[in-house]
Amino acid sequence: MTDVREFLESAARSASAHLGGLDERPVWQRVPAGVAEGLVGQELPETGADPAALLGDIERRVLAYPMGNGHPAFFGWVNAAPHPAGIAGALLAAAVNPSSAGGDHADVYLERGVVRWIAELVGFPHETGAGLLTSGASMATIVAVGAARQRALLATGWDVRERGLSGAPRLTAYATAEVHSCVGKAIELLGIGRANLRVVADDGAGHLDTAALREAIAADREAGALPFLAVGSAGTVTTGAVDPLREIAAVCAESGIWFHVDGAYGAFGVLDPAIADRYAGMELADSVALDPHKWLQVPAGVGCLLVRDRVQLRATYSLVPAYLRDDSADELGWYSEYGIEQTRPFRALPVWAALAARGRSGVAADIAACTSAARRLDELVAKDPDFELAADTEVSIVAFRFSPAGIDDAEADRITRDLAVRIQQRGRVFITDSLYRGRPVLRACLINPAVGEAELLLLLEEAREAAAELRGTE
Ligand SMILES: Cc1ncc(COP(=O)(O)O)c(C=O)c1O
Question: How close is the Cα of 182 to the center of ligand 1, in Å?
């Protein structure tokens, strides 16, 4: 690379041209077969490309076929439009390229500060070192469940780190059917066994029934198991339901089990005063998983785990090989002693930049813009003769289905099931679907503050036209 400056400036121009042109292009389109095959099957070049040709290739074959989540008419899954400051932070983090495993360099200290900021944003008590950035909430959940497992077994005299699980007391965990699949994955991966993740009844609207939780814990104890973990959702992925966190915390405290909150999608909703009271009790958890790469609009690859007691993480994960010299400036040790990764990317800088560029009030305003757009969409759906709400809109996900007068549930379900893909193929808005209480639903996830009335109206118009195509009545 001859001229680094010219090259990086050109790359920055490509990035801003990409972002600037997003709403003139389809929100999403299929990658043409030739392009996809070319990307998969391309030959490893023997010699290096000219920098301008390299950037041109990225623009033509990669930037031209995005997932769509930067676009204001993207309502799919839980994927954010990246904040410009977050993009700049990601670029500069890559330029420095430390391993944030630990040591005496700025990225390590910045991560401590940023984790504290995240704790402050959601009102979780924090002592320095009680949390870390991860690749996402799935990884944060594995780290939390691993610590909960270690604590529970150690209390019975069983050191799982030393002895493994064979012959250990049988652990049981608790959550509703609406809990995110990453919890099941963590339970599987940590050798606890999916059958030991008890599905606790809910109140009919996706909120964990704490009486049922109490009973399930008592029944398992009676049967000789070791209940060790309950998970509450601060915003489920399908409907955004927030579990009764304070009540779950009380059951966990009385039962002596670890209380984990999955706030990956929804925890930052607490910043909107209109819905903040739904989150009461989140601050009582032993751990909270959150995702800066969702609602905080940090470029993908950044989750966060907050824990009440940092000692629990270090006791679970600290395994320091001889080749690593502990040159940290404080007694907290390395981040790699608090989680699973050894080499860790500089995640703190994009998070810091995306927060510092807006400040607390700016972030809160962005969150409130999304929740209020969701309430508006809820209103539009409620009065639309072609659609019905499938659940209450609690945070910023609106779950709804096609249900015009004169069609039965089976036909409504058939159309709703195929609707998301048909809408996506039309290229003007992007939405995804799920199953809720056994029935297909469209779920519009609003985490982009740029979404306005025009996009909401467009979503319903596109859904109506796509449904007409599916029914053959267009
Ligand atoms: C509620 C919830 N929990 C956990 C996750 C997993 O997060 P990640 O994709 O960052 O691993 C998601 C992802 O959408 C989610 O919505």
Answer: 7
